[in-house]
Specification:
8% of the residues lie in helices and 55% in strands. It has 155 residues and is mainly β. Strands 1, 2, 3, 4, 7, 10 and 11 form a seven-stranded mixed sheet that branches. A three-stranded antiparallel sheet has the order 6-5-12, with helices on one face. The chain has a two-stranded antiparallel sheet with strand order 8-9.
């Protein structure tokens, strides 16, 4: 099986994957692995962050981002921190809170043509430690929006 990188970006790579015969090649996207955290407060409330996205204006979302790592020469993302470490780091960077407990809610691996591992966590027992600069250029307001109770009594 051949893997030819046809686009080499910072967060994604587009590859032509096939058996060596270009007539049967398939385009495939490899994306860095990512995490998101649902930070749960007392009373069933949760935290959201406000972010300005390119071409989309302001959005409210759960904190999260990429898992640190590096690209292999074959165009695969190799993680250098665990998903739980990334979730805790992103939570602090984007909200100023740490989670005393992180529970894995879901793990997905993308599709046949878009390879992207994504991990979602529930963060409990939150403590405010202050916002920390990630060093990345992100347009995120380091403040929290308290969502209404919307998660069932099972949490």
């Amino acid at each position: 099986m051949t893997r030819e990188i046809v686009f080499d970006g910072r967060f994604i790579k587009t590859l032509l994957v096939g058996d060596g015969d270009s007539r049967y090649g398939k385009e495939c996207i490899e994306r860095i692995s990512g995490v998101s955290v649902v930070p749960l407060l007392d009373g069933g409330r949760f935290l959201l962050i406000k972010e300005n996205v390119v071409g989309g204006g302001e959005v409210l979302r759960f904190p999260g981002g990429g898992i640190k790592g590096y690209w292999s020469s074959e165009g695969r993302w190799i993680e250098s921190e665990s998903p739980a470490e990334a979730a805790q780091r992103e939570l602090v960077e984007e909200t100023g809170y740490t989670a005393g407990k992180l529970e894995l809610l879901s793990e997905s691996k993308g599709t046949a043509t878009i390879r992207h591992k994504r991990f979602s966590f529930l963060g409990r027992d939150l403590s405010f430690v202050g916002c920390r600069d990630s060093g990345e250029r992100e347009d995120i307001t380091c403040s929290s929006y308290f969502g209404r109770r919307c998660i069932g009594n099972g949490l």
